[in-house]
Amino acid sequence: MRRLATWGRARGLLADFRYEQSDPARFYGALARDTAAMTEAVARGIDGKVVLDVGGGPGYFADAFAARGASYLAVDPDAGELRAAGLTRRRTVRAAGEALPFADGSVDVCLSSNVVEHTPLPWEMADEMIRVTRPGGTIIISYTLWWGPFGGHEMGLTHYLGGHRAAARYTRRHGHPPKNLYGQSLFKVTASRGLAWARSARGARLAAAFPRYLPWWAWWVLRVPGLREVAATNLVMVLVKD
């Protein structure tokens, strides 16, 4: 993964973040390609492998994974989210991440990209991801850290005033509540809590952890409690199923 984690990649992803609301196809298309490349790197190849994307949303990731030879499946509980982009969904199941409708050990790679912060039961979902992954398979969990600059999503840095206060301020300014409403579809998740779960996870071992959007030479911030909550911005945890 280090060979992919360049300053150019980080700069490009940060530039695309500006278009999440105004041009979601541009933003999610770039994120999909990056996610597929990251998954291929940390899983040591995905050609011919079954990849389950927990929280796959409207389908931007499907083509990116298919282009790398993966057999891609997605799960998402929100029917509105599945229809949001108007894309044809062929291999998606409507279900909650905390109760995945798949047999034990049925997929090679189980991925969750920027979903943990949107569920009230993130570590129950993570346990389910371990369950459905085959022995020797890879679990990848990437999520936005609450105390980082992107923790408030479209609410911007106002989340530092508090989640509910930031949502109220956004509503006053825009005339409607944010898509990611604190306490309902956006929750406070930290690096320390995620790493604690990963290190004690039953049935899998933590193989790697790194800040997703930083170049490799800045990964050291993850080793500093407190600093990592702000500077890491997004944490990736890679586990291998026992």
Let me know the average pLDDT.
Answer: 89
Radius of gyration: 17 Å
CATH topology category name? Rossmann fold
Strand % is 15-25%
Question: What order do the helices and strands follow?
Answer: HHEHEHEEHEHHEHE
Number of helices: 8
Summary keywords:
alpha/beta; 8 helices
Walk me through this protein's architecture:
This protein has 242 residues and is an alpha/beta fold. It has a single domain (7-145, 189-241), classed as Rossmann fold (3-Layer(aba) Sandwich), CATH 3.40.50.150. The chain contains eight helices and seven strands; from the N terminus they run ααβαβαββαβααβαβ. Strands 3-2-1-4-5-7-6 form a seven-stranded mixed beta sheet, sandwiched between helices. Strand 2, helix 4 and strand 3 (92-94) form a beta-alpha-beta unit. The radius of gyration is 17 Å and the shape is globular.
Write the layout of secondary structure elements.
Blueprint: H1 7-16, H2 24-42, E1 50-54, H3 60-66, E2 71-76, H4 79-83, E3 92-94, E4 107-113, H5 122-132, E5 133-144, H6 163-174, H7 191-199, E6 204-211, H8 227-231, E7 234-241
Parallel strand pairs: 1-2, 1-4, 2-3, 4-5
Antiparallel strand pairs: 5-7, 6-7
Brief summary of the model shown:
The chain has helices spanning 7-16, 24-42, 60-66, 79-83, 122-132, 163-174, 191-199, 227-231; strands at residues 50-54, 71-76, 92-94, 107-113, 133-144, 204-211, 234-241. The chain has 242 residues and is an alpha/beta fold.
